[in-house]
Amino acid sequence: MNRLPRGVEWLLRVALPADQREPIAGDLEEEYGLRRRRAGVLRATLSVWWLAARLALAFRWETVSRGRPLPPIADEIPRRFTVFESTAQDVFFAARLLRRQPGFTAVAVVMLALGIGANTAIFGVVDAVLWRPLPYPNADRLMAIAEQRPREGRFYGPVAPADFFDWRRDTQSFAAMAAYDESALNLTGTGEPERLRILRASPGFLDALGVQPAHGRDFRADEEVVGHHRIVLLTDALWRRQFGADPLVVGRSVTLDGAPYDVVGILPRSFWWPTRPDIVAPLALDDHDRALRAAHFLSVVGRLRPGASETQAREELSVIGARLSQAYPAENRNHSPSIRSLREALVGDVRTPLLVLLGAVGFVLLIACANVATLLLARASGRQKELSVRRAVGATRGRLVQQMLIESVTVSAIGGAAGVLVAMWALTALHALLPAQFSTLPGITGMGIDLRLLVATLGTALATGLVFGIVPALVATEQRVATALNEESRGGSGSAKTRRLRSALVVAELALSLVLLAGATLLIVSFNNLTDVAPGFRSDGLVTVRLSLPATRYGDHARVVAFYDGVIERLGSSPGIHQVATTTTPPFGGPDSRLNLEIEHRTAESPLPVRAHPHLVSADYFATLGIPLIRGRAFTDRDNDSAPDVAIINEAAARRYWPDENPIGQRISLGDPPQWREIVGIVADVKQQALDVDAEPEASIPRRQKFTSLGTGFERATTTLVVRSDLDLASFVPLLRAAVASVDPLQPLGAIRPMDTLIAESVASRRLNFVLVSAFAAVALVLSATGLYGVMAYIVAQRTREIGVRMALGATSWQVVALVLRQAGVMIAAGIAFGIAGALALTRSMTSMLFGIGAADPRVYGGVSFLLGLVALIAVAVPSSRATRVDPITALREP
Amino acid sequence: MTDVSALGEFEQVVLLAVLRLDDQAYAVSIGDQILRCTGRAVSRGSIYITLDRLETKGYLKSRLADPTPERGGRAKRYYALRPRAIDALRECRRQLEALWRGLETKLA
User: Fold this and answer.
1) What whole-number distance in Å separates Cα of residue A595 and Cα of residue A613?
2) pLDDT tens sequence for chain B (108 residues)
3) Do the beta carbons of residue A471 and residue A504 sit within 8 Å?
4) Which of B26, B43, B75 sits opposite A54 (nearest CB)?
5) By the 8 A CB rule, do B52 and A20 touch?
6) What pTM does this model have?
7) Is there a contact between A26 and B48 if contact means CB atoms under 8 Å apart?
8) What is the ipTM of this complex?
């Protein structure tokens, strides 16, 4: 027969008045049969569901909007439906109740929306950064392989080309392994010249990621050889932007840095890489660079072979590494390959800070829950009579608990829905705060509310409703009928137990707030300590400009020198520009390369590897940055290829390698091939990588002297202009463009970044943490103060008669205030005590995020306890002043 | 005097459809009748609710017909007009005609 779908029957039973149910269900069933014959089961089922849902809605709406009693539902219904139906009934009842108490509903919903919304937003970030797989097939098989020097405390450094080629040849654990580096070059000939980000990767890179070109082909193994390397893959975005998504561009030639490159393919739209390259080209190194073992500048990614584990790969690589150390002791001693997941390599080790954030925002939600629970308790005590009556006429306790839980879950569901809006807004706001390395993650770009987040929100909302609802529900329904009716008749509201419970909730809120305040304060102090660190140079008015000269026109060192001579001279004489210099390694943005350092006449085995960061700088570099010269002389324009080779070291190098002697006049050689240079000066230390990283030994070399240990194209490809001026960027850029164009009209500009911005970015992740944790702490403080206020106001109201009696017997206002304060003081003191204990236990996990302050700093704990106590006292002030205004006569006359 | 102000426009439509259907008026056929005569597709829910309301107000009476197998053994509810409804419809028509009279030239 054409029986209606069961769900439809159920829906009709729940929604329709009893006397209407049968004929309507009959009509639907008749129609259902007809449609089944005409249109098939699926369409008939869909249409009957649609019809039934609209009917249910129409009848329910009719019932609710006319304020008629809900139709009887529980009669003649099979047992298995009662739970659903009583649930549905409770939901309607709860909705009606909430509408009748808009004040309570609004306060609860706002608190929950903030709590749930903030949690959803932070969960979105944490999920995207820590848990969501990177957008590659089997992304957990992708590893980043690096070189470590454990004795220098470096674990994931860049890789030397020769090492990479040996690993790739010898490994069995990896199905594909590829090296890459990133730079920029200029696209011309397609209209406006465009500066493109290029990812140069060895063939096998896309294989490793599991990406196929959408059009055309991948690189072939022989295309990493110089001479065959002039090919590119375009990203989808560039293909659309510059080539109008023309598939025929594959096979055509484009001009990059003045040289022709054949387009062999287009990457799929879904291709993602954190630095967002515009094109991918083969990494082709010439024979000199391929043999480099002492210059480390490549990154390496690999995909584990099916069946191979990370541990196996690590063991295998360390065996290969040990072999290389033996074969090339000069370069490879003390270092070995290290691996970690690609995700960790791309987003950095942000697990601790993100989990701290998640914990902090979870605390805010807990506090909001506690607050709503106290509201519910207050409300429940006002409903004692209703509950008692319902019990008296036979409702079971379970049924009442169910109904009250459904009320709280209804509140939290509304809060969750509003929370989604809060989360959408918060995610947009968060975007600006996120550090660059994860603002490009796929889960975060275009970060919106997706199914995953919705499920998380729904789960949070339901759990929240149960958490804050269960205790009030149990307490409220526990009372005996007689007691409740008695209390009600005396005009009191609620039992001692309810009061104790509310006090306990407030103590918990205060304690949680203190933990958050302590955490926030530690982060704020750390951030302040960090930004107070002097970088070692004057950053104000300093602008850095990346330039990358094409090999086609600047293959020769002399031409590079001439180009920068021209730019420095032309720009330096522009109005408003004070000083111009160049460096290959600007602070807070340069590459992090290290070379072995040899010291003439010193052969004794050093316990530590002797290494230094090489910098190629122009003569005015130190003066332009304001780096003090400690001893000796600075470079001059006469330090060129025809003069003796010279170097300037920093204080850290002098301290470490010449602790008891004067380095000036000594000769050193950096990297390979050996090239002896005389130390002519010592400059002060500069924070090169980050404010919280101490200066490492550095050796600077004048840019006019040829230096090849870092590869032939090092200076040409990665030089930064450092300019000190008092112009704003808008007036500076045209001057800069004119100066560069006057030397080489084909040369575009790279990234132009004020030094202050670079420094700010280096602390962005800490800023994110301290801003968010502080915001959470502030919200927590307000919420818990509100909670305390509510409880105290309630207690004062409850004790009005007692206070009246006391005043009638001669108690002064002060004695009354003391009475109230004593009660509040116990709660505040307990909150602070529990809070300090909790904070001491929890902030220990934050040690790695702190700078210049200990996790258990007593000043922090004293300060936040004082603050919390102060805010709590303000919250108590209103109720206690109200207590002093109690009029004994009125109080005693009250029923 | 029948209180016609209590009769809404849609209620009139439903009553007229019931009247046209003689003894075959039930929710589905009423909906079809309205569609056929006026071209208006009306939701089933509003028909059920209006029928219920009209019955409560005393304009309609209903009877349950014998269950049939096509309906899963469920009864069908047929509706018929009470005299009060006939009066109310007449009164509506009279009022409307009075309002229409003399407007022919203006609405031509």
Assistant:
1) 6
2) 455 556 888 899 999 999 999 889 999 899 999 999 988 888 888 888 889 888 888 899 998 887 777 787 788 899 999 999 999 999 989 988 898 888 888 876
3) no
4) B43
5) yes
6) 0.67
7) no
8) 0.84
